[in-house]
Amino acid sequence: xxxxxxxxxxxxxxxxxxxxxxxxxxxxxxxxxxxxxxxxxxxxxxxxxxxxxxxxxxxxxxxxxxxxxxxxxxxxxxxxxxxxxxxxxxxxxxxxxxxxxxxxxxxxxxxxxxxxxxxxxxxxxxxxxxxxxxxxxxxxxxxxxxxxxxxxxxxxxxxxxxxxxxxxxxxxxxxxxxxxxxxxxxxxxxxxxxxxxxxxxxxxxxxxxxxxxxxxxxxxxxxxxxxxxxxxxxxxxxxxxxxxxxxxxxxxxxxxxxxxxxxxxxxxxxxxxxxxxxxxxxxxxxxxxxxxxxxxxxxxxxxxxxxxxxxxxxxxxxxxxxxxxxxxxxxxxxxxxxxxxxxxxxxxxxxxxxxxxxxxxxxxxxxxxxxxxxxxxxxxxxxxxxxxxxxxxxxxxxxxxxxxxxxxxxxxxxxx
Length: 416
Description:
- This protein is mainly alpha-helical.
- Helix content is about 50%, strand content about 5%.
- Helix 6 crosses helix 9 and helix 18 (about 370-380) packs antiparallel against helix 19 (about 395-415).
């Protein structure tokens, strides 16, 4: 038995050190499985061969056929392409956090077919290649949106190196690099229009979801950003409104959950919620799976939204301000989403900028305690017809408190 145990020991770690594409832990996946599992198209090995995704395999091969006959050159010879990708096989296998039980032939074939499908689709989306009236992705309502969503699932990724290699094997269109093509495609997707278009190609992407993370966070991250091993909660949007906080939609381009507070004005980047809910969960999952690579910017900002939205009134107010947008979701659905957005999170860590933001919000809230108290009295008594206070007592009481607030403000001014 001792020899049997010794024979099973492995000197290597179960997950390759360079892994960047992960399985979502079962416990997290059970909570929101539909947000982590592809609905229409499989990309990469984790969902390859599933029966419910087989319909798209014919679509991939059709795309590849059209691409090759349109760009027939020595470089587009299939044997040449296969050898190029086969030379990267070991690197590609190490990009996945578990052993891939596919033969070398099947694995390389999957990389080629899936990779060319993504590149051809992207070129069609920006108009570099003809779409064709017989292409169901573009003439069937909702089909393209589902595929777009599937391409941004953490379990449904190809290594960036594969996509980059294939891109240069079949050049075409206006984009000179895969980075340029991706930057043109992602901002055009519904719900992601607030990303910047021009990010210098100095940040190394590892797959499409990671590219989205770079576009939404890294281009504007403070180099001094640190990870704090704790979080700070803040009041809800309607509670902050009562103490005088003003809310505005951020103008121009920004990042996911981009939130700032200055002089009592909280600015938040616009958020579109429909099918894009799964994108947010997968970005958070990516940060969770790679703590050494990330500073929890997206997870931390999601916590802010989790705190701000506690009821339908919070959602209604933020929708009026143009901060939250939706076509298909009810207010209750949005409340549920933000109340559960951190169900998949195993960390309490936060990035330092969000901790400072939360501390600033709470400091502002604490200094306006009198205003908050007056607002509470107004809500519970003055505006409540069933209360005997509503006739006279509340009026007198509110007047007294208003005078106190004025005196308090004057004293604070001279003290400062």
